[in-house]
Design a protein that fits this description.
14 helices, about 55% helix
Length: about 290
């Protein structure tokens, strides 16, 4: 049962997310409800407006925590600053880029944080939409384009919409999980929206290996796709092992200083986590619960 307090949290998330869309209708489509229901929610009417399943669906799309979770503040780590600068450039200029770097350095957090505050920018977790059909329908739904019709119509409507709005940006996280046909469709979408839409692809070292291996095997589409994304892979962590460890520990320190309780031993947190940001979250959560 969705409580009234939870509904209010979801309504607040809907209101905060509204500025990213050009109209109430587009926003309603993006979160999966009708315009009439959207109008009811906008006016604060929650009684019998939606089923619990619909409330849960909206909460999931807007990353609303359904249980009490500690507040987590963005910290200006080197990863955060580097990725933000790259994404800002891509969106402003209609360019595309690929970032391939080690896990657990804050790539996903930074991308999600950026999308929350920028109009016409969407974040796609490719590990959840690995096929061509699911990927394109997901991108369409995130922009508020009807994603439930015939695939050819969804594709054409999405292209038309991307070419009609100002500075659209699509961030593709965990891109290495995409199936081959999905990669080919991304190339086609890039061609159809050239100079109109920015693309930012992210993944770990496996994404780089997958693309390079496919190029070496002369698999159709990969050479062209890499060239469309700038022809190279960017990364933020140092290649040298000792320098990388130093980099990770410094990031953990920056994050811990922003989020740890007052008086916490930052050095101990950094030592326990070895620079891994997920572990930093866990250690700080333990301190706050204690």
């Amino acid at each position: 049962m969705i409580t009234e307090a939870t509904k209010k949290k979801i309504l607040a998330a809907i209101a905060a997310n509204r500025s990213n869309y050009p109209s109430d209708a587009k926003h309603a489509t993006a979160i999966g409800i009708s315009t009439s229901i959207y109008s009811m929610l906008k006016n604060g009417q929650t009684e019998k407006a939606l089923s619990d399943a619909n409330w849960l669906s909206i909460a999931r799309k807007l990353n609303v925590a359904l249980r009490d979770e500690m507040e987590w503040k963005a910290a200006a780590t080197e990863t955060f600053k580097y990725i933000t600068k790259q994404i800002e450039f891509c969106q402003g200029s209609g360019q595309s880029s690929i970032l391939c770097d080690i896990p657990n350095i804050g790539k996903t957090f930074t991308a999600r944080y950026y999308v929350q505050g920028h109009k016409n920018a969407v974040y796609i977790d490719c590990s959840q939409v690995k096929t061509k059909l699911k990927l394109v329908r997901k991108i369409a739904s995130e922009f508020g384009v009807d994603s439930k019709g015939h695939y050819a119509d969804v594709y054409e409507d999405l292209v038309y919409y991307l070419r009609s709005i100002e500075h659209p940006l699509i961030i593709l996280d965990e891109a290495g999980d995409l199936q081959y046909e999905a990669f080919l469709e991304l190339k086609a979408l890039w061609n159809a929206t050239e100079r109109c839409c920015a693309w930012y692809m992210m993944g770990a070292d496996g994404l780089k290996e997958k693309i390079n291996r496919s190029i070496e095997c002369k698999k159709v589409g990969y050479t062209e796709m890499l060239s469309r994304y700038g022809g190279r892979y960017s990364k933020v962590t140092p290649d040298d092992g000792k320098e990388r460890d130093k980099f990770l520990r410094h990031q953990a320190e920056v994050v811990a200083k922003v989020n740890a309780p007052e008086g916490a031993d930052i050095a101990t947190i950094v030592r326990k986590t070895n620079g891994g940001l997920r572990r930093v979250y866990t250690e700080i959560e333990k301190l706050k619960l204690a």
